[in-house]
Specification:
mainly alpha, Serine Threonine Protein Phosphatase 5, Tetratricopeptide repeat, 3 domains
C-alpha cells in the first residue's frame, strides 16, 4: 500500500509540475514576442530588438523571432548582420515551406540593400521555387529587371504578375516594347526601333507613348505627314503631356506649308479636353498672329471664368492686353498674378 501511495504521489507531482511550469514558460516566451511586435508597430525598434533577444534566449527554436531580429537590423542599415542571422536559419532542419519562403524573402531584401543584386535575385527565385505563385517575389524581380533594363524579362514577369492578380493591362507590356525601341534608337537602328514602336501600338492602341516615339522616328526620316499623325494621336491620348509635341507639330506643318492647319489642331485638342490650358494658350497665340485679337482674348477670358486661379491663363491675358488696356488695368492684372503666385495652394 505504501508503494502504491508513493507511485500515485509521484504521478500527481509530475502532473502538477507539467501543468504549472511548462505552460508558464511558453506563455512567457510568446508574451515577450507579442511585446516585441507591438514595439515594432510603434516604431520602437530598440525595445523590439531587446524583446526579441530575450525570446531567442528562452527559445532557440523561435524562428520568427530570429527573422524579425534580422529584419530590424536591416532597417537600421546593418544588412550584413541581418544576413548572418537569416543565413543561419537556412540550415535549420524540418522547416516548413512557408518558413523557408520567409527566410529567403528576408535574405533577398538583405542582399538588395547591400547592392548584391545577383544574390538578391537568387533568393527571390528561391521563394518562387517554394511558391511559384508568390506575388512578392515577382514584383521584387520586376523592379530589378526594370533597373537593369532587361525588358524581355520585365515583360514576362509583368505577364506573370497580371495573371496572379487576374488583371489585364496591355499598356504595361507596351511600355517595355517602347523602351526596347528607344534602345534601338540610341544605336541608330531606326527600322528596328520603328518595328518595336509599332508592336507597342498593336499591343495597346490606347497607350500614348509609342505614338510619340513613332512621330520622332518619322520626323527623323523626314516623313512629316506620318510624324504629325502620330504626334497628334499622342497629344489626344495624353492631354497633360501634349505640350511635348505642340511645337513639333507647328514646325512640321510650317515645313509642309500647312501652317493654317495649326488652329484646327488645337481646336481638336480642346474639343476633347476643354480644360487644356496649354492648348488654349497656344491657340490664342495663333489667333493673335492672324490678327484675331478679340477672339483670342475672349478665348482666354472664357478659360478664366472657369478657372480663375490659373496663372498660365492670366499671363496669357496680360500678354494679349498689352496693346489694348490702360496702364492701371495692366497693373491690376499684374497684381492678380503676383497674388496667385504668393498663395501656392491657389495656383
Amino acid at each position: 500500500m505504501i508503494w502504491i501511495f508513493l507511485v500515485a504521489s509521484a504521478v500527481i507531482l509530475a502532473a502538477v509540475f507539467i501543468y504549472y511550469f511548462r505552460p508558464k514558460k511558453q506563455q512567457r516566451t510568446e508574451s515577450i514576442y507579442t511585446h516585441a511586435l507591438n514595439a515594432m508597430v510603434r516604431g520602437d525598434t530598440r525595445t523590439a530588438l531587446s524583446h526579441l533577444r530575450n525570446v531567442v534566449k528562452q527559445d532557440t527554436n523561435h524562428i520568427n523571432a530570429y527573422l524579425q531580429m534580422g529584419d530590424i537590423l536591416r532597417g537600421e542599415d546593418n544588412a550584413q548582420a541581418a544576413i548572418k542571422i537569416h543565413q543561419s536559419l537556412t540550415v535549420r532542419p524540418n522547416l516548413s515551406n512557408e518558413i523557408k519562403r520567409d527566410i529567403h524573402k528576408s535574405l533577398a531584401l538583405d542582399f538588395k540593400q547591400l547592392g548584391h543584386i545577383t544574390k538578391a535575385m537568387g533568393e527571390a527565385e528561391m521563394v518562387l521555387k517554394l511558391d511559384r505563385k508568390n506575388l512578392w517575389a515577382n514584383e521584387f524581380l520586376l523592379k530589378i529587371f526594370e533597373q537593369q533594363r532587361e525588358w524581355d524579362k520585365a515583360m514576362q514577369t509583368t505577364k506573370a504578375i497580371q495573371k496572379l492578380k487576374q488583371s489585364r493591362d496591355p499598356s504595361q507590356i507596351a511600355r517595355f516594347l517602347v523602351y526596347q525601341g528607344m534602345e534601338k534608337l540610341e544605336k541608330g537602328q531606326l527600322k528596328e526601333a520603328e518595328s518595336q514602336f509599332q508592336k507597342a501600338v498593336k499591343t495597346s492602341p490606347e497607350f500614348g507613348l509609342p505614338y510619340l516615339r513613332l512621330g520622332d522616328v518619322f520626323a527623323e526620316n523626314r516623313d512629316l505627314v506620318k510624324a504629325i499623325e502620330n504626334w497628334e494621336k499622342f497629344a489626344l491620348l495624353n492631354p497633360e503631356e501634349g505640350r511635348l509635341v505642340y511645337s513639333k507639330i507647328e514646325s512640321a506643318l510650317f515645313d509642309l506649308g500647312r501652317f493654317s492647319e495649326v488652329e484646327k489642331f488645337y481646336e481638336r485638342i480642346l474639343e476633347k479636353d476643354p480644360s487644356n490650358l496649354n492648348a488654349l494658350t497656344k491657340l490664342a497665340n495663333v489667333l493673335e498672329e492672324k490678327g484675331e485679337h478679340n477672339t483670342a482674348l475672349n478665348l482666354v477670358e472664357d478659360a478664366l471664368s472657369k478657372n480663375g486661379s490659373s496663372v498660365h491663363a492670366r499671363l496669357m491675358k496680360l500678354k494679349l492686353s498689352l496693346h489694348v488696356s490702360k496702364p492701371h488695368e495692366l497693373s491690376n492684372q499684374i497684381d492678380e498674378v503676383i497674388q496667385l503666385l504668393t498663395i501656392p495652394h491657389e495656383k
